[in-house]
Structure formats: structure tokens, C-alpha cells
Please model this.
Amino acid sequence: MAQMGRPRTFDRDHAVEQALHLFWQHGYDATSLAQLKARLGGGISAPSFYAAFGSKEALFDECVQRYLATFAQVTECLWDESLPPRQAIETALRQSARMQCEDGHPKGCMVSLGVMSAPSPENARVVDALTQSRAHTRAGIFACVERGVSAGQLPGNIHAPAMATVFDSFLQGISILARDNTPYEIIDAAITQILLTWDNAATTVLPTDRNDEKGLIDSTSE
Model:
């Protein structure tokens, strides 16, 4: 009787990375169990898949958490108060654009593209973490705008939610540009243009805005 070969070693961590790329490229619903079984570890059986990951939904959740802990960190600088607010927004935009355009993984942002490839109603819960991540980034941009107003770098009468939405909308749009293979250099140049929104608003700062900030600093130093 022929001797059976040694069972192939299954690298679970690498398999999660492979699954992440599939979900990133196609979305939750469009990524089939057949695709996952064929791709992961060079091909695994259904029993092996369920033994390793529990379910497609559980694997997706794990992939999302890995994405948020790695690729999505490019925008966490929005919460870094050691950076001037305009610089924090610029850094987030440029880092995100660079990540979304680089080779080695699907183009675009999994967090943003999750909207375009939204799952069916019965599976809507699976993208909750992506929705929360977008809200977190949006809040970070808004916090930067508010810091700009408090620092006297933006006028006190500016509509902060609208200003934040300008940058957030641009950030979400980078995903479509990257997915369509728009060159990074063009997106980077567009970031320079969108930042003029901040710069133009800054030119309308009144002396009273700066005086208010000076008074705040003086009062906190007493």
C-alpha cells in the first residue's frame, strides 16, 4: 500500500493575510467561500476552513481587525495633538494616499470601499467596524479643524463641520482614484490643492480671533 505523504503545514497567519486581500478587493458578499477555500494555504477543505476560522463572518471580522491595526493606522496622526492641526490633516491625507496606491495589496482603502461593496441586509452587521472606523477618522478631522479655530489659525466663524466634511469627502474619494489606478503623483498634487481650502480660510482670520487665543493662553498660564 502506498505510504501517505506528510500533511501540509497550514500557516494560519498567512491565510488570514490572503483572506484580507480577497475581502479588500471584492467585499464581504462578493467573496465566496469557494474563493476563500481555493486561495487560503494553497487550497483547503471546508472542514479545515471551519476548524481554523469558525465561519466566513468570523474570518472577515479578524481580517477587519488586522486591517485597522495596520493599514488604517495611517490616519491616526489626526489625533496627535503634538502636530499642528493643518499638518495633521495633511499627513493623514498623504500617508493614506501613499498606502492606497502602493503595490503588494489591493488598491484603495478597505474602510472606504466597504461602503461601495456593502453586504446584503442580512449581513449588514459585518461592516459595523468599518463604519465605526470611518466615524473615528471623521471625528479626528473635525477635532483638527476645532484645534485650528482654537489656535487662531482658522476664523472663529468658520463652519467647522462643513470644513471637516470637505477633507473627509476627499479622503474617502482617494479610494476610488486609487482603485482606478490614478497615479499617486496626481493624487498627491490634488492633496496640495485641497489644502488650499484651509489656507484660504486662514487668510480671513481677524485680529480678534488671534487675540482671543492669546487671552486663552494668558489665562491658562496664570
Q: What stands out?
A: The domain at 12-66 is CATH 1.10.10.60 (Arc Repressor Mutant, subunit A). Residues 1-7, 213-217 have pLDDT under 50 and may be disordered. DSSP finds eleven helices and no strands in the chain.
